[in-house]
Each structure stands twice: as C-alpha cells, then as structure tokens.
C-alpha cells in the first residue's frame, strides 16, 4: 500500500487534489486508517490515477471522466476522445487564423495603415428574404453551446425523416450580449410543418457575408449597423445568422441578416 504522499509523488498530483477526488467519488483510497484517517492507495490504482490525469490533459471535465471510469465502455471512450480531438483541431485553426491576423496587423502598422481598415472591405447588401419554415429550439445558452443545440436539431430531423432546405441558423432574442447566457433560438429550415416549427417571416434585410472566425463577427455587425444608420434605415426585427460553412469545412462563412425598413 502507498500513503497519500507516496501516491501523490508517483502520480504527480497534489494531496489536496487527491482528497478532492475522494470527496467527489472519482478515485477513493483503497484503505483509510480508522484511528488516524490516513489514506492509503493500492499499486493497482496508479494506472487509474494516470488515466484521470491523461483525460484531464485532453480537457475532459471531472464529471466526464467519472462517467468514463464508471461505464468501462471502450466505445464511449473512443467517441469522447474523437469529440475532444475535433475540438482541439478547431481551436488550432482558430489560433492559426489569429496568428495570421497578427502578422497582417504588424505589417500594416509598420506601413502606417490602420489595422481596422479591413472593415471597409466588408460589403453590405440590401435583399428581400422569403418566409422560411424553421424547426427551432429556443434556449438560454452560451456561445459555445450553439453547435450542441444545432446538432440536436439534426438528430430530430433524422429521427422524423424531415427535409432540410438550408443552412443552420441562430436568431438572437436578447437585448444585450452575454457570452455564457444568451436567449438564442437555433433553427433549421425544413420542408415539413410539425408541432415545433414556425415561420420566420421574410423581410427587407441588410445582409453581410462574412468569411472568418466567429470571434470576429462583431466587425460585421458593426459595419451593418453603420450602413443602416448612414442609409436612413432602421432595424425592425431580430437579427439572425446563417452558417454557410463551419470550422470543419476549411473556412468559416457566415451570413448576417438585419431586417430593416426605410425611415
């Protein structure tokens, strides 16, 4: 048997963390001395602790790790690791894009060019949209959860054998932005009209097609807002986005729509 200190040194994890893992039933001591409450771990628990540390390094939450340890399901572990790998690939692409932007900004600054001048290259169009029948799910959600809820819609489409007619969308119902807490409606345009579908009304819209990471969409929003003000229009309904291409498509393309009317 190994004392908690010995186990801590071998597995490179603090005793405080081991006590926390014991409290949440992630990995419990093999034995606790009834007289002094000292914790002892078995040699066989070393691999379990090393697996926990490995999965933490892959950005698994402690709840996710607990589920993996409790189920002993290799297929589940494969799927979970695939999901984390995809997330890391997306993150790497995002940082590569940021690195590219920084290189361009440094070059522009050296040449005396305003690093925000690219906004002038964002083109705003005025278009008439048509009524769209959408399958939607309105939730309070964080920005990073959009993909999950859109995925749920695709699952429903598959189960009910529905016909998708366009790209995924997000419609924003909040009056302000909160990265972790937005009143957002994710949607898919579909052919069939069922219980949880509704019609997104067509309108005259100021629209931008933006190529780049979602973190830069605020630049497109700023350009649309400026354009609406300069051209004597006003916003009459909720803005929404269409995701034409996503991170796994090699490039990210988003269409942004603001329903407007002339003043």
Polypeptide structure, described:
This protein is α+β, with helices and mostly antiparallel strands and 263 residues long. The protein has 3 domains: 2-71, Multidrug-efflux Transporter Regulator, Chain: A, Domain 2 (Orthogonal Bundle), CATH 1.10.1660.10; 75-115, no CATH class; 121-262, Multidrug-efflux Transporter 1 Regulator Bmrr, Chain A (Alpha-Beta Barrel), CATH 3.20.80. Helix content is 40%, strand content 25%. The chain has helices at residues 4-11, 15-23, 45-57, 62-71, 74-110, 146-160, 217-230; strands at residues 2-3, 31-32, 39-41, 124-128, 132-141, 169-172, 182-189, 197-200, 204-211, 233-235, 240-245, 253-262. The strands form 2 sheets. Strands 4, 5, 6, 7, 8, 9, 10, 11 and 12 form a 9-stranded antiparallel beta sheet that branches. A 3-stranded antiparallel beta sheet has the order 1-3-2, covered by helices on one side. The radius of gyration is 25 Å and the shape is elongated. The mean pLDDT is 91.
- What integer is the average pLDDT? 91
CATH structural fold name of the largest domain: Multidrug-efflux Transporter 1 Regulator Bmrr, Chain A
Q: Enumerate the spans where pLDDT stays under 50 for 5 or more consecutive residues.
A: none
How many β-strand runs? Answer: 12
């Amino acid at each position: 048997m190994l004392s908690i200190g010995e186990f801590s040194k071998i597995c490179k994890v603090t005793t405080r963390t081991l006590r926390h893992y014991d409290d949440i039933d992630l990995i419990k001591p093999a034995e606790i001395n009834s007289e002094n409450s000292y914790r002892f771990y078995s040699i066989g628990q070393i691999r379990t602790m090393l697996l926990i540390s490995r999965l933490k390094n892959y950005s698994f939450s402690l709840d996710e790790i607990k589920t993996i340890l409790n189920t002993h399901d290799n297929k589940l572990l494969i799927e979970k690791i695939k999901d984390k790998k995809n997330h890391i690939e997306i993150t790497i692409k995002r940082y590569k894009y940021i690195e590219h932007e920084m290189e361009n900004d440094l070059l522009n600054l050296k040449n005396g060019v305003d690093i925000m001048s690219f906004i002038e290259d964002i083109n705003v169009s005025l278009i008439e949209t048509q009524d769209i029948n959408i399958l939607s799910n309105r939730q309070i959600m964080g920005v990073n959860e959009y993909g999950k809820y859109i995925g749920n819609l695709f699952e429903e489409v598959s189960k009910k054998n529905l016909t998708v007619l366009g790209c995924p969308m997000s419609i924003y119902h909040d009056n302000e932005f909160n990265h972790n807490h937005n009143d957002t409606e994710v949607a898919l345009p579909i052919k069939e009209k069922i219980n949880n579908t509704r019609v997104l009304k067509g309108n005259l819209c100021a629209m931008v097609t933006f190529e780049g990471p979602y973190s830069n969409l605020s630049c497109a929003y700023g350009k649309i807002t400026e354009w609406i003000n300069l051209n004597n229009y006003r916003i009459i309904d909720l803005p929404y986005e269409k995701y034409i291409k996503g991170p796994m498509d090699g490039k990210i393309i988003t269409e942004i729509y603001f329903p407007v009317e002339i003043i």
